[in-house]
Amino acid sequence: MIYQAAIDESFPVAEPTQFERLRRGDPAALAEAIGQYRHRLYRYLLRLVRDPASADDLFQQTWLHVVRHLHRYDAARSFDTWLFAIAHNAAMDLLRRRPNESLEDREFALPAGGPDALSTVLAGERTAILAATMAALPALYREALTLRFEESMKLEEIAEVTHAPLSTVKSRVQRGLEAMKQKLRKEDIL
Amino acid sequence: MSDHESVRQLLALSAAGLLDCSQERMVREHARQCAACAAELDEFAALAAGLSALPSPQPPAYLLARTTALLAAEADRRQGAAFAAASAVFAFALVLLTGQALRTLVGDSAALAWLAWAAITSVFGAASALVLTSRRRLERSTV
Ligand SMILES: [Zn+2]
């Protein structure tokens, strides 16, 4: 079957007609949705699993799950959170199989060190250090931060994606930010 | 807990925009009189702004095509399965109808012989279909 992907980034996915087309298995509607979400979904997965090959693989797995379970999607709810929750589950399965990955350390400290000569830090380097510092957080903390600050999700939406209580989401955002601030202040970034 | 201590716990969440109105007001009012909290709030705000402005990683160019191809194969597989199921139902009905016709036209023994023959051929048919499907799956996984 040939997919004619006429991708229009500005097409709002919340439009019911696109969902109806998706639900019917319309390949063009599916290709549109994949195109619309590709940057956000890929970024989220990459922040979580940190290596491009795994993010790539999880991206495809997520959409395969979407087409297989589209009949279970409740159109009254947000497609964003449904999609990201599927991606979350796939990423968690992968992260749990990694021996050295800590999802949520009760007591964690960011590794010391990192780029030196910070007095000469340029704007570009500053963002690189920010990204690296976030990547060093335990998975569930960096997930909470990317969903809050890069996806601009509300507390309730993050809770839905991560299947966590609101209080847990809050504490992950708080602890993630506090750990990052401490580390960055030590390195004179803030 | 003093005002200062309880507000300090809220600074990160204030910068993240995750406090309710009354907590947010408490933070703002305290930060107006407490230089330490005001400075820390500024740092959290700078961090939050930095995180919101991180450059987005670019998905690889082939990702879209690869994903749609995967989903097309999935749709193909489903269509194939639906078609196979429909053909099986049709063939079963045809065998029964032919058996019924033979029984009325020729007799019980002819109908029984037909049903036995149909059973044997369908076993072979099903076996070869299974072999074909597993070979297709193998081919797809090696592509
Ligand atoms: Zn204070």
Question: What's this, in brief?
Answer:
The complex is a heterodimer of chains A (190) and B (143). With 190 residues, chain A is mainly α. Chain A is built from eight helices and no strands.
Describe this structure in words.
The complex is a heterodimer of chains A (190) and B (143). Chain A has two domains: 97 residues, Orthogonal Bundle (Rna Polymerase Sigma Factor, Chain: A); 75 residues, Winged helix-like DNA-binding domain superfamily/Winged helix DNA-binding domain (Arc Repressor Mutant, subunit A). Chain A has 190 residues and is mainly α. Helix content of chain A is 64%, strand content 0%. In chain A, helix 3 crosses helix 4. Chain B is an all-alpha fold. Chain B has two domains: 51 residues, no CATH class; 81 residues. Chain B is built from six helices and no strands. In chain B, helix 3 packs across helix 4 and helix 5 packs antiparallel against helix 6. Chain B is rod-shaped. Chain B starts with a helix and ends with a helix. The mean pLDDT of chain B is 86. The interface between A and B is large, with 45 and 34 residues. Bound molecules: zinc ion.
Topology, element by element:
The complex is a heterodimer of chains A (190) and B (143).
Chain A: H1 16-23, H2 27-49, H3 52-69, H4 79-97, H5 123-135, H6 139-150, H7 155-162, H8 166-186
Chain B: H1 3-8, H2 11-15, H3 21-33, H4 35-52, H5 63-105, H6 108-142
Helix pairs in contact in B: 3-4, 5-6
The structure holds zinc ion.
Terminal Cα separation of chain B, in Å?
65 Å
Q: Report the major sheet of chain B.
A: none
The two chains with the largest interface, and their residue counts, are: A-B, 45 and 34 residues
- What is the CATH homologous superfamily assignment of the largest domain in chain A? RNA polymerase sigma factor, region 2, helix turn helix motif
Which structural category do the helix and sheet elements of chain B fall into?
mainly alpha
Instruction: Round the Cα radius of gyration of chain B to an integer and report it.
Output: 36 Å
Fraction in beta strands of chain A? under 5%
Bound molecules: zinc ion
Name the helicity range of chain A.
55-70%
Seen as an oligomer or otherwise, the chain set is heterodimer
Q: What's the overall geometry of chain B?
A: rod-shaped
Q: Class of the largest domain in chain A, according to the CATH hierarchy?
A: Mainly Alpha
